[in-house]
UniProtKB/TrEMBL annotation:
Entries under SUPFAM superfamilies matching the protein: TPR-like
Organism (species): Tegillarca granosa
Cited Pfam families: GET4
UniProt xrefs under InterPro entries: GET4, TPR-like_helical_dom_sf
Region: Disordered, residue numbers: 244-269
Sequence similarity: Belongs to the GET4 family.
Taxonomic placement: Eukaryota, Metazoa, Spiralia, Lophotrochozoa, Mollusca
Protein name stated in the entry: Golgi to ER traffic protein 4 homolog
């Protein structure tokens, strides 16, 4: 009887693969589900876990996102049900894909945890500020300001290579901190001066200028750059021509919400 059941499972798996090869993804999806429930009912958790992982992986390879995600959710549920230990074999550590999905989420806490782990295991010590800066700028380009704030605060608080702040030792971290504060006031001159003061840090990654162009449009009402060579800074300065000298001249006196420090009390790096 036991050998008969094993042979039946192998035949189902073989048929699943044939369906995938022939493009019958729906049928393959249903067979993976059916067999996984059969394994689960027999308390064969290891077999069910391997099956669901294999099925989700293969379906996602063929861009069957809905079916692949369904099997992935069944896999997560099974891991919780079986109380299986979370090992490196279960988590693939695909930081690139994890980062992509977290940037499109509102889970700033777990995004920060992933960025810290990614940097500590894969990055150079000098790049601790680069990992978080790009994530915050991308969140802002997606108009997800609240999550950008959470991921920045969580990252800087928990990263072993980032000292207590603000202010921070690394200029790029101070720039991101000031930028998040500037979003609250929405004053274009604050944004402009920050970008001018931190040009050296911004130039460390050429994509930062593109992100900041977009952030200027979304949060400060700036028009898109007219020409590529002109870039963000020329566009910002042009937008200020004829704007007059009003209460924006006291920009460096704005209070921070977290530490009651003003921009005038902290030297810009």
């Amino acid at each position: 009887m036991a050998s008969s059941r094993v042979g039946g499972a192998e035949r189902v798996l073989s048929k699943c693969q044939s369906c995938i090869d022939e493009g019958n993804f729906y049928e393959a999806h249903q067979m993976y589900r059916t067999l996984s429930f059969r394994y689960k009912g027999q308390n064969k958790y290891a077999e069910a876990i391997n099956l669901l992982y294999e099925g989700a992986y293969k379906l996602l390879q063929y861009n069957q996102h809905t079916s692949g995600a369904d099997l992935a959710l069944l896999l997560i549920d099974l891991l919780n049900t079986s109380l299986s230990p979370v090992t490196d074999d279960i988590i693939e550590k695909n930081y690139v894909q994890a980062r992509y999905h977290l940037i499109h989420s509102t889970d700033g806490t777990n995004c920060a945890a992933m960025l810290i782990e990614h940097h500590v295991t894969k990055g150079y010590q000098s790049e601790a500020d680069l990992f978080i800066a790009q994530a915050v700028l991308q969140y802002l380009c997606l108009q997800n300001k609240d999550t950008a704030q959470v991921v920045f605060n969580t990252y800087t608080k928990n990263h072993p290579d980032v000292e207590d702040g603000p202010p921070f030792y690394k200029p790029l971290l101070n720039f991101i901190w000031f930028l998040l504060l500037a979003l609250e006031g929405g004053k274009v001159t604050v944004f402009t001066i920050l970008c001018e003061k931190y040009q050296t840090s911004i130039k460390r990654d050429p994509t930062y200028r593109e992100y900041l162009d977009r952030i200027g449009q979304l949060f400060f009402g700036l028009p898109p750059p007219k020409t590529q060579p002109q870039g963000m800074f020329g566009n910002l300065l042009q937008s200020l021509m004829g704007a007059g000298n009003d209460d924006d001249e006291d920009i460096m006196q704005q209070s921070t919400s977290s530490s009651q420090m003003s921009l005038s009390q902290v030297d810009l790096d």
